[in-house]
Amino acid sequence: MGSFSISDLEQLSGIKAHTIRMWEQRYNLLRPVRTSTNIRTYCDSDLRRLLNVTTLCGRGRRISQVAKLSDAEMAQEVLACCDDAQDYNQQVNNLLASILAFDEARLDSLLNSGASKLGFEEMMLRVVYPLLQRIGLMWLAETMSPAQEHLLSHLLRQKLLAATDALPLSSLNQASRWVLFLPEHELHELALLFMNYALRVRGHHTLYLGQNLPISELTSVYAAYQPQTLVTVLTSQPERGRVGEFAQVVKAACPDARLVLYGPMARQEGLELPAYCVAPRLMTDFLTLITETSLQAKD
Fold first, then answer.
1. pTM for the structure as a whole
2. Cα dihedral across residues 134, 138, 140, 141: positive or negative
């Protein structure tokens, strides 16, 4: 169970701390406990309730009315009012509340609804990535449990695989060729799966090799597939200070291919990469890179 300060609630919900205190005092909205030093701390159910209250108040409901609802009534009304596809923050709040409650059915419904209204790629960029950023902050603060994080990761992985599988295969002879892989001991796959989807939906041919690939395997892959570009996501691997060495080993295995490095390890302060490497900072930068590659191929 998470333990949140009031500043954590402010950051995660977007509601100012003084407003949270006022709601707590007037309406008994949340039920914090106090530490031995008299500091308020809040649990998962407090954050979940606050996120649902934020959604309903954002839809014009009065806080005095919303505060009277039970948690179950509040969750039901939130689902009933999720009809504004452009209110991304509301969607993020709803998804986060579902994760905290381990409500897989509601989480699945919200993701399906978002994809239907926004389109799959737009939902990933506008809703899922901001959600993952919030979860990252909660993870660092140790207020998100591994089970909650795994619930979302597993469901998103299913969605990404299904969306990609529904796309037609491009002709190997006509499309540019991309190899996507994660290095040894790297298991954080969601960004790479989305990159694969983005490439496929734009007509590129991809060879998806997934997690934990020994770099020595790239030599035979390169000989058989002849890719123009290799893409990898460096979340925890290789170790700090060894990214440049990693890039050189990949280049030796695939001498004529461009290497795209994405993720925290590719954004280290002072990191210098070889000329054949590209390191987009944001996913939108990677999407721009795909577009530029397509335009160059047509010239």
1. 0.74
2. positive
